[in-house]
Amino acid sequence: MTYIDKTGIIASALSEVIMMRKLAPLFCLLAMTAQAVQLQVSDPEGNPIPQAMVTRTPLDTPTPDLSDDGYAPDGITNTAAVTVTRFTNAQGQVDIAREGKYSYRVRAQGFKDNYSNSAVGNLKLSPMNSQELIASYPSNVWLSQLAFGGDHALKEVFQLNCSFCHQQASPFMRNERTVEQWVSVIERMNTYGARLPGDDIQPVAALLQKEYRDLRENPEQVPAPRRWETHLAAIEMTEWPIGDGFSQMHDFLLHPNGFVYVGDNLFDRLYEIDPKTGEYTVYKVPHEGDARVGGILGNRFTLFPKMQNYMGVHSFAYSKKDGNIFITPSLQQALLEFDVTTKKFITHEMSAGLYPHTIRTDEQDRIWFTLALSSQVAMFDRESAEFTLYDLPARGIQEWLILKALPALFLLDPEDRPLPSADRDSTGLPMPYGIDVAPDGGIWVARLYANDLAHIEPDTGEITMIDFPYSGPRRLRADANGNIWIVAFQNSLLVKYDPISKDFTDYELPVINELPYALNVDRDRGTVWVNGNQSDTIMSFDIATEGWKVFPMPRQRFFTRDIEISEQDGAVYTTNSHFPTWQSEGATPTLLRITPLVD
């Protein structure tokens, strides 16, 4: 019995060894498969490259219906070619491969891009030479070296007027041009909406020619951009391409119904995007049959091959009562309402006010928005369907006269309409721009060209003006404690204003010579998110620790104008609104989302 037992044990052991040998190739294959999920990114010597950006783009997507002059017809649903971007960890690894047909682009600072149809195994990147490296730097570091002959005030005027639509020192802008060509470019930009003073045009043109040429010939002067950091391995970026190279996806809205609504400012279209499926439906904003392109401002873009901005879809806010979306049509004296259930637009006509701009709603279901040209704030009471206009004070008698004359001037044909000459103080155009509703219900407004803030007490209508000791307050938001956060456009600063102590505190941005367009405050998480537009980044600022994090965009020449934040998970949304869009990498606007990765 003992012998048999031992034999049985030995036989059993031998059987297991034989079985393991038979299964060894399968176990090896499984182990290789498990490891192959990770893409390993290395330099030529085999050292891992952390924070390498890996972008996955689908190769098979449904053919969209773009039969309406290259755009989706009204009410038609298409599917976007959704791209996903992740970053390698400290070991140079990233899990991004998925079943299906995809193209993968790997990008890392200092290395040449690599394209592949697979994101499995090892991938080595080749370093850039010195010329390629500096040419790859984002616009802000090139812009930082434009000194304007030592005239800092002139550079600020230039940045204020020439950097709010596109990146200023991109490869498209720093090409060789004659002084006369630069003058022509600047004069054309002034017709688009810039207000560079006439006396500054010739000096700026000469300095741009001289200093861009000097930088091209001596590129070693251009400093390296900020290095990408370890927090990137913990996030994922998703992009939904929409529109085309002529579109401008200006502002947008993250709605409680789960959709994201994006406005094409130049083609009067509203994109309703489902982030879960990638499907989007386009709704055309209606206009009167005799409406003219450019609305009451006239067609400023006569050189563009196509343009359909009769209304000028601009900024978005939603009603907390019924979810309907309110939109400022900057080219008309009106307020738009979009019924999210019926998908129909309602136009609320206004008898006064010029250039409806940024918009917010309050807890009483009132709609507040700035009127940028007439220096007013409008409030639309939904119960009475009536508008109330608040006149913000002029900075002097000359500005008061200009503002009073504007309604009469806008009765004239845009082709024959005289406009006040631009000066460095933008006299006649203080431009109320950003607006927000504080937790106590107070209304806060930033006047971009006047360098001041306005506070409106809704119950009494009392207006208080506050000098802003920085340059270019563009958009602002209130945090949970009622502090007001403002971007100082030309100063590359984030600024906090405490309404109780009446103190300003400034925080230097973590990237140089950035011109921050806007911001938003995550009140639940105590974070301020700031739009970078010259540096291909957006930035987060932790209010408690005063620490910054920088998030590079997955495309070059990525110009962002607004930020939306998900209350559920803190995901952050923005859009690429570079104008013209064809200068952006990929030549297509996108909606972008940054989400934390969940293990």
UniProtKB/TrEMBL annotation:
Keywords: Lyase. Gene3D superfamilies: Cytochrome c-like domain, YVTN repeat-like/Quinoprotein amine dehydrogenase. GO terms for molecular function: lyase activity. It comes from the Bacteria. Residues 51-70 are annotated as: Disordered. InterPro entries: Cyt_c-like_dom_sf, Vgb, WD40/YVTN_repeat-like_dom_sf. Residues 55-65 have a biased composition (Low complexity). This is Lyase. It comes from Candidatus Seongchinamella marina.
